[in-house]
# Entry
Amino acid sequence: MTKFFNTLKKYYNIAFKTLLFVITVIIILFLFPTQGKFRFEFQKGSPWKHQNLIAPFNFAIQKSDKEITIEKDSILNNFKPYFKFDNEIQKKQLDLFHKNFNNNWKNYNTKNTSKAKSNVLKTEYLTYCDSLLNNIYINGVVQFSEILQQTKKGSSIIVVKNNVAEERDISKIFTPKISYNYIKQNISKEFKTYKKSSERINFLNSLKLYEYVVPNLFYDEETSNKIKQNLINDLSLTKGMVQAGELIVTKGEIINTKKFLILKSLKSEYEKSLGSSTNYHLILLGQIILIFASVLVLFLFLYNFRKEILKHNIKTTFILLLVLITVITASMVIKSNVISLYVVPFAILPIIISTFYDDRLALFIHTITILLIGFIVPNGFEFVFLQFIAGIIAIFSLSQIHRRGQLFLSSILVIISYCIVYFGMAIIQEGNIREINLYNFAWFAGNGLLLLSAYPLIYLFEKLFGFLSDISLMELSDTNNQLLRELAEKAPGSFQHSLQVASLAEEAIFKLGGNPLLVRTGALYHDIGKSFNPQYFIENQVAENNPHDKLSFEKSAQIIIEHVTKGVEIAKKNGLPHQIISFIETHHGTTKTKYFYRSFINKYPDKEVDVSKFTYPGPAPFTKETAVLMMADSVEAASRSLKIYTDETINELVDNIIDAQISEGQLDNVELTFKDITTIKNIFKNKIKNIYHTRIEYPEENK
# Structure
């Protein structure tokens, strides 16, 4: 039955991983364009490397992005904004003026004795004022706004009056300020030749005609935007035609701007015709082959060099998910056509991978991903080259992401690398610095800023997938951490022992090519269980009396073994990552508490021994880091009990302890070569000798 379940589990894992890779292929295939690919590669400023190219069919020549932008700008610059004319405002304001005029006239008329003359003057003033106000309102009054400010001097606006649009010179349009000056000047000019001119002018000014001038023209944003968009939509995107059979370019000919536009137009029409033809199924087959080959290469790399990733479904899912997220993001940006692809921080992929794994894997996955995206982006070669260089720079500059400011520095270096590489490619293609699109440099700056989101993303992936980054390890290895401070306070000897073990293990794993920061952190926490009963461990005993003297051998062994189980409980209670907990569980493996075990046998030679009472629960170490910690822990603890410190006794101690662990099968689950074991032994010997060098140099210290 057990064999059946093991077989089922084995094939379940294979089936699950196969399904993961198949789903990845299907999703990427869905993101690929439905049209085919132009079979010729070309770049502006480079020679045509293929045979003479003849137009296979008639096609229109597309305008360049720069030409289209210039024409759009011309449309926008010459666009006449639309304004609505309100007929009711003029009538309301004139009625209000007449009402107020009669009141003002009574006060003014007290100076005049002739009634007939008074009526004539009243009619004359009223007619003049009405004429002045009507002239202003007929031309139109607008509130000064940015719309008018943006409209060129001498240009026109469109006024919609009674559903009829008419063009009107902007110089004839009034604003409240212009109206004020117009009224003042007109009154002075009109009446300066009259008798008692100053009296007339003063009266008319006292009427404050400008207060009756309010806007009757209002900007029609909806209509303006609609007309503006229609003009842009009607803009022709092509210029001229190429006839079938016409020679386009000859072999070796330099591709100038004109030839580049023709070739680009041919490529677009060619790919559209392929996508809409009956050959679509063949195109689909070709895409499946390319995507499958890329994903297969990724699988083979993991199988040959990173088997530990394929062994875990979560790790495999994480790798494929990152690839999919990157490809999906690129596809969405291309389809939306809102922002430039240059702003997408593709270098964030190798940063995240290298944080949880290593630089080699990060570079390989980054390369595979950008090659896949290269099939769906325009100018695939340019894209792949740019992103490949940026990815390498990001990896090299972030060898130690836990350092403060390192990511910021990496972001700056990525921006610089983008700008330099793009500038080099652009001057080759354009042949003129003035023709380079400077907006792309702004996109590169945005790209670098988005790289700073790597920190929160790393934290997010840590929580989702249970990973452990160097950033978290740095936080955990801080000796001011609550658990470590508690260990230092309750069991100072055990804390000092942990520091020495961390030093031994860190140097050894650094030489072997593991994760030094992980093993150091694991070493600091491996004995936190000793804070529960610190007085029962020799490194914490200061008096000559030993509490174990009052206990049975089984009970003493139980207390010693308990520091592992208690350590795991404390770690889980305080939310330590499972990677750190594994160091607590495995640092004694399935070995025995040899002192109490031998003491029991010596005292009770005829009594049957329950070995389980003297054996640590394990498991045995299963990674390179946990194995090195186990060896370092045993060597450091044993070195404290040496009676004589010499080169020979230290060498013998290290050899005996590590050989015993190997013979007991404690390292069977870890792939360590004879060379690795020798390296570990030599490092431990040198480190122990450095610790006790004064006792070796001055033998009297051994007494």
Summary: The chain has three domains: 2-35+278-449, 76-232, 494-526+548-702. Residues 76-232 form one domain. The CA atoms of residues 645 and 693 lie 8 Å apart. The longest helix spans residues 2-31.
